[in-house]
Specification:
α1 crosses α2, α7 crosses α8 and α8 runs antiparallel to α9. The chain is mostly helical. The protein folds into two domains: about 45 residues, Orthogonal Bundle (Arc Repressor Mutant, subunit A); about 130 residues, Tetracycline Repressor, domain 2. Helices cover about 75% and strands about 0% of the residues.
Length: about 200
């Protein structure tokens, strides 16, 4: 009796594992080819799956971009929360941690995140997601810094200015225009000045 050679069945990834794989491949694609190259068809090809699998997970290119941005923001939030828990209970300590965490997350994502953010700006629903996360970040900073202003409150305009500085300095460091340390130091000083105006 002849024994037939059979290939072992391919292990199917769980839905969660497949999504993780697709996001990892998407980040890699952006890193190597830029955000413009990120299409669902190209992602499917690079991940070794069919197009319907990618569409099933993200629905559209905008859905994929939104998922990438949400993942980036969740990573940034986790890093910042952990660092804040360990930081000195001083204004300078908190400012330094937020500055280092923000700049560090942008640098860790390299040149990929500015491309994703630029692509997000092209679609109103994606701009809405980005804004929601910005508001969450601003509120987190307000909560962190309010204990240092006595009975005063931190002006919302100052918090938006701080966020603008955080983005500009982080992107300048990612582009190599300034060093990460210069970005962190300047952002930390910007935060201290912003809080100082409300004391």
């Amino acid at each position: 009796m002849k024994h037939q050679m059979t290939n072992p069945p391919r292990r199917r990834l769980s839905r969660e594992d497949r999504k993780r794989q697709l996001l990892d491949v998407a980040w890699e694609l952006i890193r190597k080819e830029g955000t413009d190259a990120l299409t669902l068809g190209h992602l499917a090809e690079q991940a070794g799956v069919t197009k319907p699998v990618v569409y099933d997970h993200f629905g559209s290119r905008n859905g994929l971009l939104a998922a990438l941005y949400k993942e980036y923001d969740a990573r940034q939030t986790a890093v910042m929360d952990a660092a804040l828990r360990e930081s000195e209970p001083t204004l300078r300590g908190k400012a330094s941690v937020i500055a280092a965490s923000y700049v560090g997350c942008v640098l860790q994502q390299g040149n990929e995140i500015p491309g994703v953010i630029a692509a997000l700006a092209g679609a109103p629903e994606l701009e809405k997601i980005k804004r929601e996360y910005q508001v969450i970040f601003i509120e987190k900073c307000r909560d962190v810094f309010t204990p240092f202003v006595g009975k005063g409150t931190i002006a919302i305009a100052g918090l938006w200015a701080m966020l603008g500085a955080a983005d500009a300095l982080s992107n300048a460091a990612a582009a190599g225009d300034i060093t990460p340390k210069q970005a962190e130091d300047e952002l930390s000083e910007t935060i201290l000045a912003m809080v100082g105006r409300n004391v």
